[in-house]
């Protein structure tokens, strides 16, 4: 029986200006499941993703990922934990503009462990970009850049993929291509947490979590 | 991969990096120029000072004998004692021999010029003008065996109308002080007669010597009232062969105190003592000290300006690359890797700026040398590591604050889309 890979318990996040982004939120995510988080702007979905992605810390409560309580980890331990367990896909792609598609993927390898160019090429093959290895982001379409971003997220073989509006800047065709890729990754066993405003995308995943004012509404 | 990221990151931001490099170049160039000048300045200024006369006077130790006993001073009596001319070569055999730019022996005697009421007493000085002195036992076998020196070498500041006495055996030419020439109405080329009497009581003992005015000296000093002839002639006139009263030494002192010269000469010629011309020496040291302080301050200011330039550029760079740094962190870059990236950039900026600054600094030092000292300043390649080190350290220190900013960037900003 699949286990809970992520256990969020009573977390709150209050920013310096007293804005409460998350309010005593609890959530469990099953390994290999695709969870879609939806909600209006300011509902706390990106904050939740940041905390699960070890990019931000909760003001209170605990988050267990793979049995590790990440709320107890120090900054450097969080960085190491993130690079071992979590892959990030961004709406804005966030590729380094002066590196080629291949180098952007290799950069993630470099910061993780050892650079292996063949593995990086293979990752770009998987996202069907073998013909664009040596192109810099400015010479790639939005869809291609997002696929480089996915290849980069995959390269270190994390078991959790966090995607923040991955199709938000793409046309329908490219959006479908990216979603199909993510679906493939789920079938391979990755746990997917995806943020979107699009109800159609919500239907693709196993489960939809709706946030309102930092709380789960359904 | 690190080098690839570094190379591409630098080449992507060429204009920003260029500004930082230019900042370092300015600091490195000024540091190089002033260091080069500083290394040469003591020597150059020393040479300049040496144009204004000797800074060490050698005389016979027992020339002046203090008379009295503790608590009671009866003054002194003077006993005429001499230095042997044959010992002069020893001055050029001391440890600091290469810093002995020149020396001139002086033998004084009073002679009479003119007839009847116009007869006047004048001091006749015998000296070397430009004589080859044989160094009988050189300090080292590499040292030359002949040293050309004389009053012409150590008194380049004298104004001479006419010519110097060139021939070491010339027993008829003289150089007359401007005041003597005025009183006696002498001009260059004129002949005149001097009279010398060893015993003024006995006029029959008086001998006369015809002389020609080869040059008229103007120094605004005692020399204006004296007549200079070859030492040999002066010795013949007063029958004091091989004798001199004093020796004026022009010593170039930058790494050594003049007193050290005096001490060494006293060891070589035990019956003499050396006295430094304190005003000249202290003025020299004072000016050198001030020049060095000024150069130090200018260098510090230039380096601070450099650091400011690098810091501004690096800070702008960090702000511009905020997302990139956040992204690197989000994909797993630890702070030490971010720090390494920026420190490497700073080091490259320091090295390029330092090397280019060195080349420009050498050119500037030439300009300073020619315009201030009227001489070229030799490039000193041994200061390359110093300039490189200073440039890199300035670039690294200037990068500390921007790097601190970079380290504080939170990876979450990438997801927030800020």
Task: Please provide a written account of the structure.
The complex is a heterodimer of chains A (218) and B (418). Chain A is of the alpha/beta class and 218 residues long. Chain A has helices spanning 45-52, 75-85, 101-112, 117-126, 142-154, 172-187, 199-202; strands spanning 4-14, 20-30, 34-39, 60-65, 68-69, 86-89, 160-164, 191-195, 207-212, 215-216. Chain A contains seven helices and ten strands. Chain A has a six-stranded mixed β-sheet with strand order 6-7-8-3-9-10, sandwiched between helices. Chain A has a four-stranded antiparallel β-sheet with strand order 2-1-4-5, covered by helices on one side. The longest helix of chain A is centred in the C-terminal third of the chain and has 16 residues, at 172-187. Chain B folds into two domains: 2-47 and 286-416, no CATH class; 55-276, no CATH class. Helices cover 48% and strands 23% of the residues of chain B. Chain B contains eleven helices and 16 strands. The radius of gyration of chain B is 34 Å and the shape is elongated.
User: What's the count of strands of chain A?
Assistant: 10
| Total number of helices of chain A | 7
The portion of residues forming beta strands of chain A comes to 25-35%
Question: Which oligomeric form is depicted?
Answer: heterodimer
Please trace the helix and strand order of chain B, writing H or E for each element: HHEEEEEEEEHEEHEEEHEEHEHHHHH
Count of domains of chain B: 2
> Would you tell me the structural class of the helices and strands of chain B?
alpha+beta
Rg of chain A, nearest Å: 17 Å
End-to-end separation of chain B: 27 Å
């Amino acid at each position: 029986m699949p286990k809970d890979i992520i256990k969020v318990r009573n977390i709150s996040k209050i920013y310096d200006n007293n804005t409460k982004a998350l309010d005593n939120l609890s959530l469990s995510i099953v390994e290999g499941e695709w969870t879609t988080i939806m909600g209006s702007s300011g509902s706390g979905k990106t904050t939740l993703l940041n905390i699960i992605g070890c990019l931000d810390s909760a003001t209170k409560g605990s988050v267990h990922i793979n049995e590790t309580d990440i709320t107890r980890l120090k900054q450097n331990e969080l960085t190491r934990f993130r690079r071992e367990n979590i892959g990030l896909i961004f709406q804005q792609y966030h590729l380094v503009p002066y590196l080629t598609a291949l180098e952007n993927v290799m950069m993630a390898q470099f910061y993780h462990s050892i650079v292996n160019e063949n593995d990086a090429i293979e990752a770009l093959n998987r996202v069907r970009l073998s013909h664009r290895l040596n192109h810099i982001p400015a010479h790639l379409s939005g869809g291609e850049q997002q696929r480089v971003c996915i290849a980069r997220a995959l390269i270190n073989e994390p078991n959790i993929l966090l995607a923040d509006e991955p199709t938000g800047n793409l046309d329908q065709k490219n959006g479908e291509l990216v979603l199909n890729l993510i679906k493939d990754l789920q079938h391979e066993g990755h746990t997917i947490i995806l943020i979107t405003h699009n109800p159609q995308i919500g239907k693709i995943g196993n489960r939809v979590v709706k946030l309102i004012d930092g709380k789960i509404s359904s | 991969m690190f080098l690839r990221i570094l190379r591409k990151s630098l080449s992507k931001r060429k204009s920003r990096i260029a500004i930082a490099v230019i900042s370092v170049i300015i600091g490195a160039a000024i540091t190089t120029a002033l260091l080069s000048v500083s290394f040469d300045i003591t020597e150059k200024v020393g040479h300049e000072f040496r144009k204004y006369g000797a800074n060490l006077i050698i005389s016979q130790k027992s020339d002046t004998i203090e008379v009295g006993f503790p608590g009671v001073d009866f003054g002194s009596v003077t006993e005429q004692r001499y230095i042997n001319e044959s010992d002069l070569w020893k001055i050029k055999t001391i440890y600091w021999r290469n810093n002995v730019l020149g020396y001139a022996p002086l033998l004084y005697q009073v002679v009479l010029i003119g007839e009847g009421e116009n007869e006047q007493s004048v001091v006749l000085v015998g000296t070397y003008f430009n004589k080859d002195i044989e160094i009988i036992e050189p300090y080292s076998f590499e040292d030359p065996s002949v040293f050309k020196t004389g009053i012409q070498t150590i008194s380049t500041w004298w104004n001479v109308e006419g010519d110097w006495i060139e021939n070491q055996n010339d027993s008829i030419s003289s150089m007359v002080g401007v005041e003597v020439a005025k009183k006696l109405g002498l001009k260059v080329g004129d002949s005149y007669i001097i009279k010398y009497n060893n015993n003024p009581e006995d006029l029959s003992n008086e001998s006369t010597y015809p002389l020609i005015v080869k040059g008229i000296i103007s120094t605004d000093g005692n020399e204006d009232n004296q007549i200079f002839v070859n030492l040999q002639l002066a010795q013949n006139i007063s029958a004091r062969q091989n004798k001199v009263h004093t020796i004026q030494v022009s010593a170039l002192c930058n790494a050594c105190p003049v007193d050290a010269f005096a001490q060494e000469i006293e060891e070589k010629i035990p019956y003499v003592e050396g006295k430094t011309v304190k005003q000249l020496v202290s003025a020299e040291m004072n000016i050198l000290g001030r020049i060095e302080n000024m150069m130090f301050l200018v260098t510090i200011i230039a380096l601070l300006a450099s650091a400011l330039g690098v810091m501004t550029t690096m800070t702008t760079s960090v702000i511009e690359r905020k997302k990139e740094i956040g992204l690197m962190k989000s994909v797993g870059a630890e702070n030490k890797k971010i720090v390494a990236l920026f420190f490497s950039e700073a080091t490259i900026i320091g090295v390029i700026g330092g090397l280019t600054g060195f080349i420009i600094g050498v050119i500037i030092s030439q300009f300073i040398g020619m315009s201030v000292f009227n001489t070229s300043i030799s490039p000193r390649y041994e200061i390359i590591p110093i300039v490189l080190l200073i440039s890199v350290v300035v670039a690294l220190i200037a990068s500390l604050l921007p790097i601190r900013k970079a380290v504080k960037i939170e990876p979450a900003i990438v997801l927030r889309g800020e």
